[in-house]
Amino acid sequence: MTITPTMTGADASQPRRDRGPAAERLPDHRLVAHATGRYIARIQPQYLSNTSSAVAELARLRRGAGKRVHQLQDLWGIGGTEELARLLDGRDEFIRPAFAEEAVFLASTLWALHQQSCRDAGMHDRRQNLGGAVRTLIRLKGASAEDEEDSPLRKRLVRAGTAESLDSVAVRLREIVLLLRGAREPLDYARLAGQLYRWQHRPDRAGVQREWGREFHLAAVTGKGRPGSVRDTGDTGDTGKAGDAVDRALSPDEEYGGYAAGE
Question: Fewest C-beta in 10 Å: which of 132, 194, 217, 225?
Answer without folding.
Answer: 225
